[in-house]
Amino acid sequence: MADAEKLAAVRAALPALASGIHLNTGSLGPMPAEVAAAMAELATYERDVGRAHVDYYLAMLERMAEARAGVAAVIGADLDEIALTNAVTDGMNIATWALDWRAGDRAVTSTQEHAGALGPLYALRDRLGIELAFADVGDGGDDELTLAAFDRAIRPGTRLVSLSHVLWSTGAVLPVARIAALARERGAIVVVDGAQAAGAIPVAVTELAADAYALPAQKWLLGPEGMGALWLSREAWDRLRPSFAGHFSFSAYDSHGAGTWHPDARRYESAGFYRPSITGMARAVGWLSMYVGLDYVHRRGPASARRAADALAAIPGVELLTPRHQMATLVSFRIAGWTPNAALEELGARVFAIARSIPLLDALRISVGFFNSDEEIDRFVGAVGLLAAHTPETVPPRRTLTILGEG
């Protein structure tokens, strides 16, 4: 299809796009209609027929395998290296706790990490007495500064380096492969939070030289909440031991309930999953890969984000915080004279924009998807320009609709 025709077809398959300008896929992406329909069909089946028949269980195992295969295709991995998780935070927890930690061990992360990565690190520090160090990467836009910061932080005794592929705050793409090479030279395991990368930009985990890569279903893969995946390199299987009791996964039982030990990454699947969500994740990843096509996704999404960043940066009174030369699909910025929450409320009311704030930066953030139209971006940028030219006290009143006959 020509791009315009393809964009129209894609947007028609994402009904939520009719409700506003969706610019928060970095939190939750719009769900394809066929994904929602498949999940609803299974939920109805469970209500009306039940969930206990062995054939339904075996079908669920097939959908789990389908979801793993879809993720493997998106990030350039082998099928047996993928474990399903309940979220990216679940994956970061599993990988972080999988080392045999001892008091005095050291872990390193960056000053711009998300709570999903920081949570298990703080828990290790408080419970086991590990040393937690932060590499000051600034806005993430200077690779040499970033590498120098990690070089200083990865001292003897460092056993884990935890970092994001794309920073949730400024949207900068970090030089993961170079950081990972530095860490591995010093004997450290590297765990990567891929929440703002997988499904948004090309990802080849083997080229990143990391040991673990966690990702969610509900963001750029457009799947349901409560699902995610964890990639673990074969080299890491012996060093990263599942920390949960028994080391049996939900998918480790046959039709008779007999447990089996998985020799591959499935050993890290620590809990059960909502069965409609398993199907939803598998269907969403398949829709993105086969109906839309990853080449289109990876080409159009970042290009649209750069277009939005350039337009915002050109507005007097707007400060672009995202490093333009090293960005993915997130754009963070400030509007002079406006708090992020006040600006979000005004933008939502004027152009039905759905975005979010970044408290860490006292800024707004938009997530630009391959499905966002140029017209949507132009309307949003125009509304930002209006706010930048005014204060909350001087901004022109919003349009109102008078209902005749009331009162």
Which outline best applies?
globular
Count of DSSP-assigned helices: 11
Give, in spatial order, the strands making up the sheet with the most strands: 2-8-7-6-5-3-4
Please indicate the count of domains.
2
Question: Which range best describes the helical content: under 10%, 10-25%, 25-40%, 40-55%, 55-70% or over 70%?
Answer: 40-55%
Tell me what the CATH architecture of the largest domain is: 3-Layer(aba) Sandwich
CATH class of the largest domain: Alpha Beta
The CATH homologous superfamily name of the largest domain equals Type I PLP-dependent aspartate aminotransferase-like (Major domain)
Distance between the termini: 53 Å
Mean pLDDT score? 93
The parts where pLDDT drops under 50 for at least 5 residues are none
SS elements, strand count: 13
Q: Please state the oligomeric state of the protein chains shown.
A: single chain
Radius of gyration: 22 Å
**Pattern of helices and strands:** HEHHEHEHEHEHEHEEHEEHEEEH
Report on the architecture of this protein:
The protein has 407 residues and is of the alpha/beta class. It folds into two domains: 3-32 and 293-387, Aspartate Aminotransferase, domain 1 (Alpha-Beta Complex), CATH 3.90.1150.10; 37-283, 3-Layer(aba) Sandwich (Aspartate Aminotransferase, domain 2), CATH 3.40.640. Helices cover 40% and strands 14% of the residues. It contains eleven helices and 13 strands.
Short description:
Strand 3 (106-110), helix 5 and strand 4 (131-135) form a beta-alpha-beta unit.
Based on the model shown, name its key terms.
4-stranded antiparallel β-sheet; 407 residues; single chain; 11 helices; Aspartate Aminotransferase, domain 1; 2 domains; Aspartate Aminotransferase, domain 2; alpha/beta; 7-stranded mixed β-sheet
